[in-house]
Write a structure and sequence with these properties.
This protein is mainly β. It folds into two domains: 3-33 and 50-340, Glycosyl hydrolase domain, family 43 (Tachylectin-2, Chain A, 5 Propeller), CATH 2.115.10; 366-514, Exo-inulinase, domain 1 (Jelly Rolls). The chain is 7% helix and 45% strand. The chain has helices spanning 3-26, 30-33, 147-151, 385-389, and strands at 56-67, 70-78, 88-94, 101-107, 114-122, 138-145, 158-165, 173-174, 189-197, 202-209, 212-218, 225-230, 240-251, 254-264, 273-281, 286-288, 303-307, 315-320, 335-336, 343-350, 353-360, 372-379, 383-384, 395-402, 408-413, 419-425, 430-434, 450-454, 462-469, 472-477, 482-487, 496-500, 505-514. The strands form seven sheets. It has a six-stranded antiparallel β-sheet with strand order 22-33-24-29-30-31, with no helix packed on it. Strands 23-32-25-26-27-28 form a six-stranded antiparallel β-sheet. Strands 4-3-2-1-19 form a five-stranded mixed β-sheet, with no helix packed on it. Strand 7 and strand 8 form a beta hairpin. The protein is globular and about 65 Å long. The structure holds beta-D-fructofuranose. Beta-D-fructofuranose (FRU) binds at residues 1, 59-60, 76, 87, 116-117, 143, 190-191, 242-243, 304.
């Protein structure tokens, strides 16, 4: 979100909030007269296998950290409304990346401002000194955003601060000497993401500083020195840079460094998007190998994603499943916005480059029964897959495999004639996703669109994993090389799936698993 948008939303939120209270006082019957199911997590449009807050507003994932058997998910949260407002850190935990339990709010705004995005590290060696009597502190590094300074036009309104927890993330104490990194006069100076850099035995922070990423280092998380900057002349610059995340990944016995950078606007299909760079990092500077633009997800709805800290060699990514173009307007009432499915990241060589692949974490399959398998399906005319699978498709994982990729389309639809279409177009070598007829689209003129994404491999075979969950579809093509995520709001769930091809696609194998709700 850029500064102007944020300012506008601060103003709009006051008006909306006042209006909301007025309505709540005068027409308390509105909620009761609606025919929809309003039990928590069962409301219309509520995702059933994705994390969404029990109520009110959510944006970026924050402070993802694995500790003592729990995956912690903190998130940008406004508990006072369903539009963006004064930011808190909401909190949820999971033992398996699939079932989530929301806990009390972890961090509240204070005299230094709202609590913007950031990260959490496990300070095992107690470098910060926050640990007492041998306790290991979890340390949160986040941006304090001062809305009053911002309004006054003082560009130093964002700075980095600390909080720590000595009870495995349940309660948090803000550091008394906050901020630990003051603002040097850069209006967009935020979203610190910190990791332990073992070769240099120091902490390294990646920080979004307007149009580049600045790297800082520290022995104790409290005093920070600037090391370098990266990116002024690299990557996509359609908007301000936000939410960096730097981490190592192995490929063929070589360590590569991956740098995720979100940008808004300027995403691959408009609005918010997350690009990535692969290269080397020496503890001071990041050097990308190659100049091609790479996106972790080409769909409209995967933003501000980062990975879990402290998971060893396994790297798990989570994104916010929305787009700043319309996130404040989507037609949910009790809560707003969900996260993507957690995805495992790996490196792969493709087209003489090293690229990132993302696939849903294997734990997701625990929500399904044994998959229904179909073999050797010639797709001459449209084939009704749901009739063959004999199950409703409203939330499911589908995996398709064909020895030879051909033009095809696949539609998810309902009895109202609403549909979401995906497919592959050989002439342009692009996948696409079309939500123009997907149901409620009237809340923002930019929502009903067709999006496309390049195919990034020259392999002949097609592999496609699709995760459908009431109001979202995540498409992972070619073992996760091309990903597209999209939300939508059908009047009835999409229960029906058809596939068609004008080029004699032969599907070698198709598997289908309906997923149980996590709530
Ligand atoms: C990204 C972002 C971050 C910021 C947060 C505020 O979506 O704009 O840069 O910290 O949201 O909620």
């Amino acid at each position: 979100m850029n500064t102007n948008e944020r300012r506008q939303w601060s103003q709009i939120y006051f008006v909306l909030f006042a209006g909301f209270y007025f309505l709540a006082l005068t027409v308390p019957a509105i909620a009761q007269t609606s025919p929809v199911d309003s039990r928590p997590y069962k409301e219309t449009f509520r995702p059933q296998v994705h994390f969404s807050p029990r109520e009110k507003w959510m944006n970026d994932p924050n402070g993802l950290v694995y500790y003592q058997g729990n995956y912690h998910l903190f998130f940008q949260h406004y508990p006072g409304g369903i539009v963006w407002g004064p930011m808190h850190w909401g909190h949820a935990v999971s033992k398996d990346l699939v079932h989530w339990r929301q806990l009390p709010i972890a961090l509240y705004p204070d005299s230094l401002g709202y609590i913007f995005s950031g990260s959490i590290v496990v300070d095992s060696a107690n470098t910060s000194g926050f640990g007492k009597k041998g306790q290991t502190p979890l340390v949160a590094i986040f941006t304090h955003h001062d809305p009053i300074k911002e309004k006054k036009g003082d560009s130093t309104y964002q700075k980095q601060s600390l909080a720590y927890s000595l009870d495995a993330g349940r309660t948090w104490t803000k550091y008394k000497d906050n901020p630990v990194l003051k603002n040097p006069g850069i209006a967009d100076f935020r979203d610190p993401n910190v990791m332990w850099y073992q070769p240099g035995k120091k902490w390294v922070m990646s920080l979004a500083t307007k149009d580049c990423i600045s790297f800082y280092s520290s022995p104790d998380l409290k005093s920070w020195s600037k090391e370098s900057e990266f990116g002024k002349a690299s990557g996509a610059h359609g908007g301000v840079w936000e939410c960096p995340n730097l981490f190592p990944l192995e490929l063929e016995d070589t360590t590569w460094w991956v740098l995720l950078v979100s940008t808004n606007p300027g995403g691959p299909n408009g609005g918010s998007g997350t690009q990535y760079f692969i290269g080397q990092f020496d503890g001071k500077e990041f050097h990308p190998s190659g100049n091609t633009l790479k996106w972790i997800d080409y769909g409209p709805d995967d933003y501000a994603g980062i990975t879990w800290n402290n998971t060893g060699a396994r790297k798990i990514f989570l994104g916010w499943m929305s787009n700043w173009i319309y996130a404040n307007q989507v037609p949910t009432r009790e809560w707003r916005n969900a996260m993507t499915i957690p995805r495992e990241l790996k490196l792969q060589r493709a087209n003489e480059e090293i690229l990132l692949t993302s696939l849903p974490v294997r734990e997701l399959s625990r929500l399904g029964g044994p998959p229904v398998l179909l073999k050797d399906i010639p797709v001459e005319q449209t084939v009704d897959l749901t009739a063959r699978w004999k199950d409703s498709a409203d939330r499911c994982i589908i995996i398709l495999h064909a020895d030879e990729i051909k033009d095809f389309f696949l539609t998810f639809s309902n009895a109202r004639g609403e549909q979401l279409a995906i497919g592959y177009d050989k002439a342009t070598n692009h996948y696409y996703l079309d939500r123009i007829q997907s149901g409620r689209t009237d809340f923002n003129a930019d929502f009903p669109k067709k999006y496309s994404a390049p195919r990034l491999t020259s392999d002949k075979e097609l592999s496609l994993t699709l995760v459908l969950d009431v109001t979202s579809l995540e498409l992972f093509a070619d073992k996760g090389l091309t990903v597209m995520t999209s939300i939508f709001f059908p009047g009835l769930p999409f229960t029906h799936i058809d596939i068609g091809s004008n080029d004699h696609l032969l599907i070698g194998q198709a598997s289908f698993s309906r997923l149980r709700s996590i709530w």
